[in-house]
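Request: Not sure, any thoughts?
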Amino acid sequence: MPFSKAGQLARVVRTARTDDPIGLVAENLRESPHGVLPVLDRDASDDEAQRKARVIGLITQNELSFVTKKLLETPVANGHWPPATPEIVPETGSDISAQKTPELRENEAATGANSTFSLPEIVAATESPSARDAALTPERAPEKPLFSDPLLSVAARDVMRSDVPFIPAVFSLHNALLTLERYGYTALPVIDEAGQYLGLISRADVISALGKSVRPPLVGGMATPVGVYLTDGRLSGGAKGFALVLSGVLTAFLLIVSQILLAFGVWLINPEWGILAFSGRAGLIGAENGSLANSLVSLAHGLLFLTLLRFSPIAGYHAAEHQTVHALERGLPLEVQYVDKMPRAHPRCGTNLVALGGLLTIGFQHLRSFDQLSVLLVFVFAFFFWRALGTFLQETFTTRPATRKQLENGIAAARELMEKYQAQPFAESARPLRLLNGGMLPVIAGMTLALFVLLAAWDFAARALLGANVL
């Protein structure tokens, strides 16, 4: 069933601690997708730690801006703040609401919000700099005279509001939306039955779930000979396990066929070289030019393999997989007319890693010495050109324009993944390392098994045709 409770949509975002400086608070608030920063009662270094913490405050951009504005309006002289007038800063411990503008009061009256926090004691009005210094608490008393910049002495505890509205995890999506509207926030913390923090939920989260359009934050996939496989690392849609194994088998078959074609072509040029090619020693032609010959043979083998791959069914499904993932990531409707306009190359494709490995291999093969400068130049060259080479290989060899049937297959895989994603207990955060296991293991297993069988058959045929004495 689709998402129906607020707890299912709780999203782990950046949080603050009470002693975080205001600059760090502002930076984390800037990175927050909702413009709301929860203040927790403990250091939450990972998702699990955050889910065991409790919310003790909330910071929004409006409140942070209001306090910062008041601090900047306070004049500074000789490293100390002079006595502030009541028009600028309220009395010590007084409610900051007395200094709010009419516009801010009207907005809070309309939304039901009410700020009850106070400005820091170090900014409160006192009659002299010495009295103001004495007002500092021991934990916050600076070792040196007061900073000339008042912002450096302000922490999250000074600007957060402690009367934090929250949404119980068991609330329906309708009630969650009503609560967000009542308090006038774009997002609010979600609390479980034990009062522990689960994450934030926003108005957009609720409406997206009501429209059955919540999408996984990160999606990967594999192309198989019979269809597209998509996954977020846990859930999957499209082609099943056997198709992934078949993808590995076909890849191994194309590698062996390209090797046979290469050996046959070399044999037509020079029978002696052909024997070496059939025996897997095509690059061993002289001691001086062996490295160059190895590189040329490897390049020819790679080009033959990529050419065969280009005309296999995998190439079309590979394009459909990339285009579907692009559409998901860009928030486009899963319809053929939109997916068909997406690029065939994707930056997270494994082809890019193959390009990186190829550049490093070729570079190190031709190094005359492994001194630090030469090794550094190889890495620098690979760093600047591996993505460009990977994109070229994707557009030229590993994908080809997908047919309408292949695009529809990719779209069906994406819709199946989305349905499973919305039926899970929680909308979990993106974890890129999970994608390394998503479909890769069955492909590797199929490829390894096929290579073992095909290479054994290759060795038997070569010995039968060429004789064991040349092998």
Notes: The chain has two domains: 6-210, 220-344+399-470. The chain has a mean pLDDT of 76.
